[in-house]
Amino acid sequence: MQFIFTYLYDGGEGWELELTLEDVLPQGCKKKHPVLLEGALGCPPQEVGDIHQYQALLDVFERSGDNSQKYLAIPDGPDFYPEMFDIDSINAKLRDIT
Fold first, then answer.
1. Which of 21, 41, 69, 72 is deepest in the core (most CB within 10 A)?
2. What are the residue boundaries of the structural domains of the chain, listed by start?
3. d(CA 88, CA 6)
4. Which helix (H) or strand (E) holds 63?
């Protein structure tokens, strides 16, 4: 069974995620929480308001021309690593919320 759906996050800000449900495990299975199998790109910093600001931030990163730099320094915020995707951290959070 596969089910693809869209999740609108923080309505009005334009954040939209596409999620695919790969399987539902039978009742009584050892796993009691969702597990993320794959994904891409880093989570935008909280300081980035909407999708348009995020796209502008990515544009600045791409136009920097410095292939050795893997992050963007954000004023009043953390360094941002657009390519960083930490599946282990995400799965730990999923395990903690159930």
1. 72
2. 40-98
3. 23
4. helix 51-63
* pTM of the complete model: 0.64
Question: What residues contact 93, with CB distance under 8 A and at least 6 apart?
Answer: none
Spatial distance between the Cα atoms of 14 and 17, rounded to a whole number of angstroms: 10
Burial of 98 (0-12, 13-18, 19+ CB in 10 A): exposed
The model's pLDDT over 55-64, given as tens digits with 9 standing for 90+, comes to 887 887 777 7
Q: Which two tokens stand for residue 9?
A: 């996050």
Count Cβ atoms below 10 Å from residue 3 Cβ, excluding itself: 10
Token pair of 51, please?
Answer: 């999708």
Rounded to the nearest angstrom, the gap between the alpha carbon of residue 85 and the centroid of all alpha carbons in its chain is 7
Q: What is the pLDDT of residue 75?
A: 66
In three-state secondary structure terms, 62 is: helix
| Ramachandran category for residue 65: left, alpha or beta (phi over 0 → left; psi -120 to 50 → alpha) | left
Q: Which amino acid is at 71?
A: Y
